[in-house]
Amino acid sequence: QVQLVESGGRLVQAGGSLRLSCAASGRTFSTYAMGWFRQAPGKEREFVAWISWNGFSTYYAESVKGRFTISRDNAKNLVYLQMNSLKPEDTAVYYCAADQRPYYYSGTYYRANEYDYWGQGTQVTVSS
């Protein structure tokens, strides 16, 4: 069982930056690919970013490419989402998620059903 806890969300002005963190429990965290998703009010949950178990590969949604960066520290069981040049349309609850298949590279990392564990989410609000 893996538990994920996100933090770092808050109110920020457009153009500002935030860094979200996701703390994971469990000794096998370093074998899991991780993803960030977000869900705005009245909208479906959408993919934001993915990172491989070793941090060597990353993928991003087109809407955040060049502005957001996903990273991880396996020694600390942490995953980060650095968000720069924030826009009002980035306002959402942000979730981290773990794919428990060890050392696995999913070709459909953008699908929420690829992930086995989810955090409770952290609210990011970007004011214009």
Structural description of this entry:
By secondary structure, this protein is mainly β. The chain contains no helices and 11 strands. The chain has strands at 4-7, 11-13, 18-24, 33-39, 46-51, 58-60, 68-73, 78-83, 92-99, 117-118, 122-127. It is globular, with a radius of gyration of 14 Å.
Compact overview of the structure:
The protein is an all-beta fold and 128 residues long. Helices cover 0% and strands 45% of the residues. It has strands spanning 4-7, 11-13, 18-24, 33-39, 46-51, 58-60, 68-73, 78-83, 92-99, 117-118, 122-127.
List the helices and strands and how they pair.
Elements: E1 4-7, E2 11-13, E3 18-24, E4 33-39, E5 46-51, E6 58-60, E7 68-73, E8 78-83, E9 92-99, E10 117-118, E11 122-127
Parallel strand pairs: 2-11
Antiparallel strand pairs: 1-3, 3-8, 4-5, 4-9, 5-6, 7-8, 9-10, 9-11
How would you describe the shape?
A: globular
Give the quaternary arrangement of the chains.
Answer: single chain
- Which range best describes the helical content: under 10%, 10-25%, 25-40%, 40-55%, 55-70% or over 70%? under 10%
Helix and strand run: EEEEEEEEEEE
